[in-house]
Design brief:
single chain; alpha/beta; 2,3-Dihydroxybiphenyl 1,2-Dioxygenase, domain 1; 2 domains; 4-stranded mixed sheet; 8 strands
């Protein structure tokens, strides 16, 4: 940016060039550009097991699915943000960050925890960092930490 300003003052001596360069700088600036979080991608070990978790327990719906080379790709959503599941039979190792979690709102933590237990998952104890917020964690079939949260 500093060198661009020097260029403007050294080479854009007339107001037309200065105006054109100023507009270009404004258009190329990232300030004020609205970004929207669209999706999170999870490489999965078993597509059917993962689909069952995200559809039956989390409550997401499949919005798009397709194959790309050796990969099967499924997008699920409930609202604007989507979860992208990618399965590739040729991949045999997976690594997920231990300090990352995906959070989903729940109308009833008790019902969600019960559904998870019936499906063979082990939800953590419910935590309540403040009176109006309660949540618990569980690992999805791939080991990704999922947080279910209820805010009153």
């Amino acid at each position: 940016m500093f060198f661009l300003l020097i260029y403007i003052f050294l080479f854009a001596k007339n107001s037309v060039n200065f105006g054109i360069i100023s507009i270009y700088v404004l258009l190329c600036s990232t300030k004020g550009v609205a970004m929207e979080f669209r999706h999170v991608t999870i490489s999965v070990k078993d597509m059917q097991e993962s689909l069952s978790f995200y559809k039956d327990i989390v409550g997401l719906e499949v919005v798009r699915e397709f194959a790309s080379g050796p990969s099967q790709i499924v997008f699920l959503a409930s609202g604007g943000t989507q979860v992208e599941l990618i399965y590739n039979a040729q991949r045999d190792s997976f690594s997920y960050g231990s300090d990352i979690s995906l959070g989903f709102a729940s109308d009833s933590l008790d019902d969600t925890a019960e559904a998870l237990k019936k499906a063979g998952f082990e939800p953590s104890e419910v935590s309540s960092p403040q009176p109006t917020v309660k949540f618990f964690f569980v690992s999805d079939p791939n080991g990704v930490r999922i947080q279910f949260i209820s805010e009153a």
